[in-house]
């Protein structure tokens, strides 16, 4: 998200004291404080800037959704976590880092 520039919202566009959104979602999450694609108005086409915004949002969403789909195929996740629960965040972070940086 940071690299995409989507978080670079000018402060004057935000309500007083509000931080820029840090979550991304599809059009079903419009109005919930997330970064979402721009919805087309029924009586007019999308502006070029809106299309560019939608492309940026959808590129990020695609990567995240593919990563989640990949995780769902792992058989080890279909069983309970057998290590101490306090170690779960470090374990899953290590597994993800090893998986997504592995180059054969």
UniProtKB/TrEMBL annotation:
Which cofactor is recorded for it?
a divalent metal cation
The organism's place on the tree of life at top rank: Bacteria
Q: What keywords are assigned to this protein?
A: Endonuclease, Hydrolase, Metal-binding, Nuclease
Query: In what residue span(s) does the DDE Tnp4 domain sit?
Result: 21-99
> Where is the segment annotated Disordered?
1-21
Q: Which GO terms describe its molecular function?
A: endonuclease activity; metal ion binding
Q: What is this protein called?
A: DDE superfamily endonuclease
Task: Please give the organism.
Answer: Actinomyces ruminicola
